[in-house]
Amino acid sequence: MISFEKYHPLLSTHYTLDWLTNSNLKAVHELRANTQQAELSGRKTDPDIPATAHYINQSMRLVMKNQALLYGITDRATKQFVGSICLWQFDADFTRAQLRLEVADAKLAEALYQEIIPRLVGFSFFELGLSQLTMIVPEHAELKQWLAANHFQNQPYPH
């Protein structure tokens, strides 16, 4: 079994992906409290900073149990937290997983899609040996159009 603890930080051209414990708690809370991002991710908002701290601790437990990889995304030039991305929901054979990206500032969305998604997709296939990744994306989400334009396949999600 692969030990997820060794997979940090991950670097892309402009961003550092590192454990959420290394991100600014207040910035992570602002993202977790954002109703639009919560809707896009299909989750509830965090009502306060202690709820976000609990989420971060639970996320790290999943990493330590090799059940998820969850990263805070930091712009290396500005040192600002700009979002989070996770690989989770691995199947029993460890061949498929779900990818989820949350963006703290909508103005940065396109740049993060262009740089972070391909980085994590490559990492998933070449380093982790996965054969399939899924992203659950609402019909109205801008990300859905970006994924389609970049050769991702749209499939109905069985609820």
Task: Describe the overall structure.
The structure is a single chain. By secondary structure, this protein is an alpha+beta fold. Helices cover 37% and strands 21% of the residues. It contains 5 helices and 6 strands. Strands 1-2-3-4-5-6 form a 6-stranded mixed sheet, with helices on both faces. A hairpin with a 7-residue loop joins strand 4 and strand 5. The longest helix has 19 residues. The radius of gyration is 15 Å and the shape is globular.
Question: What's a quick, concise take on this entry?
Answer:
By secondary structure, the protein is α+β, with helices and mostly antiparallel strands. It starts with 9 loop residues before the first strand and ends in a 10-residue tail after the last helix. The mean pLDDT is about 90.
